Amino acid sequence: MDALKRKLVFNETLNESRKIFQNQSITSIENLSNEIFYEIFDYFDGGEIVKIFSKLNSRFEQLLHSSLILIKTHFYLFYYEEIMNKDHELEIFSNKLCTNLKILSINCSQNIIFLDAHRWEQLILHYYPQLEKFYLTYYDGINNNNQYPIYTGPVNQFSSSFWIQRKWIFYVKIDNTNIKYSIYPYKKTWYNYIDDNNIEYSTSTSLIFTNLRTWSYDEMIFEQIKRVLTITQIYHLIIIEEHSMHLAIQLINLLPDLITLKIHSLPSNEITSFTFEEFGIVGSFKSLSKIAKVYIEEINDIHDLDYITLLCPRMKFFQVKRFNINIQFCLRTLLKVIYNNDICSIRSLCFDVPTMDDEIIQNFDTMIRSEKLLFNYTIKHVYNKIYLHWK
After folding, report:
1. Phi/psi at 247 (5° precision)
2. Which domain holds residue 373?
3. What's the structural domain count of the chain?
4. Partners of 188 in the β-ladder
5. Interstrand relation of 348-352 and 317-323 (parallel, antiparallel or unpaired)
6. Is 350 a member of any domain?
7. pLDDT at 323
8. Is residue 374 situated within a structural domain?
9. How far apart, in Å, are the Cα atoms of 171 and each of 89, 200, 215, 220?
């Protein structure tokens, strides 16, 4: 409801209330109808309703548990401090809930207890047994002392069998100082695009970075990652914007469980000179890295391929969305590197092309065969993508 409409409705409600008072000589708010209170409740979120009207008297207690606003207040009541210490009181809701609810979406913040996955499991199992889609968003922000709320729960709560069976996946997004934790139903991703029959939902948690350019220093980013790792392991890293190699090295090093990496691009004008520490970190990737699939939005320079293989030396699948250099030259260079590197793990390539026809496929195939860049390979196109695979 937009602001103007809300104002008009609210004024109408007040006018109606005045008329009731004038016509019926009402001298107490208790005598207002439930419908008027429902109109008033519409201007507050669930948390505000509970804090303002809970425990006033039996009349308001009944209103709070009314089926008309139950979905709005139930989750706040469930986590409300007094009720949290008396779980058995939840039984008063059992006969009044929408047990046939199919879709549920919750947005919350301020209280870290909302990341207690076990309580969400209890709530859904007992009161929403037919729930098919669940959307949860929790906004985790720093306080005036630049500190995040203390989290004391176990790691990976949202990766239990309860969430895996329902294919409800945990995501984390870092945007400046804000961290957003989300649960929503699984959607096909780039790394499962071809084969989504053997998806490991237990390792589906992703971390998304945005607005990296606005950062004046990296230390806060690293503190945020450490914060996230107290709550969940991260298996997929997505960096929305262009970023430096130095930052990429540190991020990958802090996230040892990564199995996929998706980045926008690498800076084409950056002169990369690694520190002694960075050389050591990059060297460890050769034996410790678990990143098997890599996606880069843009290739701006042929040297980008060198940097990608440095960051992810054990990748098996490499996908590029857009080439800002000659695609055939880039493919030839990459295959020559693979051909001359016995320890290279890449076995599949995927390239997006603006248009797709048999001639393009034929040109790539001819180049590979004539220059003997690969043996025992297959090449095909799916929509506007070329897939190249070899043993």
Report:
1. -65, -40
2. 235-390
3. 1
4. none
5. parallel
6. yes
7. 87
8. yes
9. 32, 15, 22, 20
